[in-house]
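Quick one:
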Amino acid sequence: MAKAAKGKSRFMSEAIIRQMNLEDVPGVMKVEEASFSGPWDVEIFHKELCENDHAYYFVACLDERIIGYIGTWIVFEDGQITNFAIHPDMRGRKIGEKLFGYALTFMAGKGVERLSLEVRISNMAAQSLYRKFGLVPGGIRKHYYTDNFEDAIVMWVNLK
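Output:
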């Protein structure tokens, strides 16, 4: 049992987080397609990285493999998480916690005072993670997700 726990903590400590670049898009697409029933397409990531001055994206890598990513927008003092995923075969290893924490620290360093995101009402694991970082529910976006029209919970936190 101790061996399994040690192995899981290894992933968190050895995962490297860095800014995403265009060469990362194929690896990010593998995470995206494995994680979502309505994945973004390649063009969206290209536009975010090349055309959106408000966008900042980061990847989590393990042994050169992209195992997760997070996208953010920063507009003045407001931050938004646009998309966030950890590859299903790497979940439960605290990598999402490390990546999310990295993004929050980055945004706070850029002067972000308020952060918000949307999360599926059925995604209890993600909601639990966000609560660890102080996010609280602030409202519901009815039929937000286009794949099944599931509602989204809007969660937010003051970073100031």
